[in-house]
Design a protein that fits this description.
single chain; globular; 7 helices; about 200 residues; mainly alpha
Length: about 200
Amino acid sequence: MSMPTIYDLKPRFQALLRPMTGALAQRGVTANQVTLAALLLSAAAGSCVALFPRQRWPLILLAPVLLLRMALNAIDGMLAREHRMKSTLGAVLNEMGDVASDAVLYLPLAFVPGFNPPLVVIVVLLSVFTEMIGVVGAQLGAGRSYKGPLGKSDRAFVFGAMGLLIGSGVPTQGWLTPVLSLMVILLVITIFTRGRDALRMP
């Protein structure tokens, strides 16, 4: 039995966003435009963290930015599937956009006092591997795997929670480095879980 993750809530999240998705489709908004909007949002938030690493407000913004990014990610998928906007370019933008968004949003945390820079970089690199191993599974015919204890939605929750805590003035001593270390372990488990699925060719 697979470990439950935040990704399991995706159908309910999509149901809430479906009316908005339909309205956007009627207005001519494309899936690719929404994908690029999510990337630009991540880049803007990450830039704020990098430019003001000692300020609290960019960290507090992480949680709402990540929630909005998750909404945009869900909307672009529904536009593609349910409004016949699938394309090869869209598939590339979707996968690369997720990886790029993680990088530009999370890497600047290495400049924030209290964060262990090498651990932040390792977490981001492993996050890239988790997404790429899912793509490999799809190429091998085993399907895109989203399994594992620290997928995209789970990472967003953890980083958003850390941002809220630190931005609210909670001291980082004693818990931040252990949390990042645990993320490394969970990401490795996620990579192996998705890799195992990728090797289960039909």
